């Protein structure tokens, strides 16, 4: 009596073909996932920052006070602050609270472009007294942008070159409306 034995498993050639196919798919898709992740960091920073600008405007209106979003530009400057202030009757200047009500960081690898270097150039400056070196977006208690001719455009940029949109421009109108491009 003869017995037939059947072999089970895969040959070395079959295993190598599968490994080659997986390697080829990885070479094609992994860079796309990395680029997508980088783009999502920029988009997340944009959403959070515009939400905080809207929050500052709403706070100015609801609390009948001035509200300021203060930020620095350049790679490595990830932090921005939201402050509340009132008018000093003696000087007519806005007196800002010493402690911000919100301090946030942009996602790593995302930064504010120097407004003077942005295209088209914005003339964003430090308008508070005493000057602290940060750029300021200030809302009146009515929600109107106080420094519309001074800071009406902010650019967020990614350090990565593999993203679909390397930067976003935030435009702020005098009434305080935001648009992004």
What can you see in these coordinates?
It is a single chain. By secondary structure, the protein is α+β, with helices and mostly antiparallel strands. The protein has one domain (12-180): minor pseudopilin epsh fold (3-Layer(bab) Sandwich). The protein has 1 helix and 9 strands, in the order αβββββββββ. Strands 1, 2, 3, 4 and 6 form a 5-stranded antiparallel β-sheet that branches. The protein is rod-shaped and about 115 Å long.
Summed up:
This protein has 181 residues and is α+β, with helices and mostly antiparallel strands. The protein is 29% helix and 25% strand. The protein has one helix spanning 12-63; strands at 66-71, 79-87, 94-96, 102-105, 110-112, 135-139, 153-158, 167-172, 178-180.
List keywords for this structure.
181 residues, alpha+beta, minor pseudopilin epsh fold, 1 helix, 29% helix, 25% strand
